Amino acid sequence: MSSIPPENLLMGVPKKGRLHEQCMKLLVQGAGLEHKRPERLDIAHCTDLPVTLVFLPAHDIATYVAEGNVDMGITGMDVIEETEPQNKDLSIVAKLGFGQCKLAVQAPAAEGLKDASVLAGKRVVTSFPAIAEKYFSKYENDSTGKTKIKFVSGSVEAACGLGLADAVVDLVETGTTMRAAGLEIVETIMETEAVLIKNVNTPYPALVETIKKRIEGYQTATKYQMIQYNVQRENLEKALAITPGKRSPTVSALEESGWCAVSALVHKKDAAKIMDELERVGADSILIFSISNSRM
Ligand SMILES: Nc1ncnc2c1ncn2[C@@H]1O[C@H](COP(=O)(O)OP(=O)(O)OP(=O)(O)O)[C@@H](O)[C@H]1O
Ligand SMILES: O=P(O)(O)OC[C@H]1O[C@H](OP(=O)(O)OP(=O)(O)O)[C@H](O)[C@@H]1O
Ligand SMILES: [Mg+2]
């Protein structure tokens, strides 16, 4: 294996699981971190920037970053919360808009529990023991005693069915896993999504900034599309009210007198509605272009 060049920034990336694919897309297509990962190896050097990707379990990445073993990383907010008291040197660089789900107290639907206070002192199985312990402590008193929290690293929802737990604390996205196990949400503890994080003492702040800018540019590109259309000057004001752009639209004169061409960024999700509205105020030759990357 080639050794890590000493001048390289180390970036912790989830090696598998729910975040892996979207992380790779973001880092390669978005941040241009092209690399070759040798078979079975958890380290890959990038060709364009002095960055080495280190493939790690998502649940360990906050700790690696907080302790400065890697300079940056991508993991869930839930993982950061779980390791919280040790994270004084960790800071969040950007929210990434994927890996969105919630961490929730779940109990058998048949029990019909109205709130989690009745679970204080009972048996709870989770991959998030620190969050669960803190959460249940607010419900505990002399008569309930301490909640018995047991750590498992996966397949958490099976614990109630196996008779090992009265409730679980685990992630819920679509709810499919939870419902299949006959569970329901009793209380939501937190909403979570993937975040880009850094160690505040990294010796590569300029490189962190470059990666952050590249990712932000890519995120904008994936959220927006470029709209272009022609409109008569008398209808321009109404058309610009529909497409005010991100900062401001570009308006240029057409050869045909009385007409101008407009281009502006629009939210991808609003594009169809905006085209309808522009047509209604007399715009024509309306075109939508995808943006593959951007820098604003
Ligand atoms: N169903 C989900 N939807 C969205 N994000 C999720 C989901 N499950 C997990 N995550 C996010 O991904 C992070 C890593 O969890 P994941 O389950 O991918 O890792 P893992 O348990 O190491 O992998 P695997 O489940 O393949 O063993 C979680 O901390 C959370 O932030
Ligand atoms: O609400 P859903 O869409 O069903 O997603 C939630 C499930 O996804 C994750 O599990 P994963 O698939 O990573 O398996 P694991 O429990 O073995 O980690 C999480 O731990 C939940 O079990
Ligand atoms: Mg998992």
Short recap of the structure:
The protein has 296 residues and is of the alpha/beta class.
Description:
With 296 residues, the chain is of the alpha/beta class. It folds into three domains: 9-99 and 193-203, D-Maltodextrin-Binding Protein, domain 2; 101-191, Periplasmic binding protein-like II (D-Maltodextrin-Binding Protein, domain 2), CATH 3.40.190.10; 224-290, Alpha-Beta Plaits (2-Layer Sandwich). Helices cover 27% and strands 31% of the residues. The strands form three sheets. It has a six-stranded mixed beta sheet, with helices on both faces. Strands 8-7-9-6-10 form a five-stranded mixed beta sheet. The longest helix has 19 residues, at 205-223. The mean pLDDT is 96. The structure holds adenosine-5'-triphosphate (ATP), 1-O-pyrophosphono-5-O-phosphono-alpha-D-ribofuranose (PRP) and magnesium ion. Adenosine-5'-triphosphate (ATP) binds next to helix 2 and helix 3. One of its GO terms (molecular function) is ATP binding.
Strand order of the largest sheet: 2-3-1-4-11-5
Mean pLDDT: 96
Name the CATH superfamily assignment of the largest domain: Periplasmic binding protein-like II
Alpha carbon gap, first and last residue:
39 Å
The count of domains is 3
- How many extended strands? 15
Q: What string, H for helix and E for strand, traces the elements in order?
A: EHEEHEHEEEHEHEHEEHEHEEHE
* Small molecules held by this entry: adenosine-5'-triphosphate, 1-O-pyrophosphono-5-O-phosphono-alpha-D-ribofuranose, magnesium ion
Helix content: 25-40%
Shape: globular
Sequence stretches where pLDDT stays below 50 over 5 or more residues: none
* CA gyration radius, whole angstroms: 25 Å
Secondary-structure-based class equals alpha/beta
User: Helical segment tally?
Assistant: 9
| Residue share in β-strands | 25-35%
Oligomer type: single chain
Look up the CATH topology of the largest domain: D-Maltodextrin-Binding Protein, domain 2
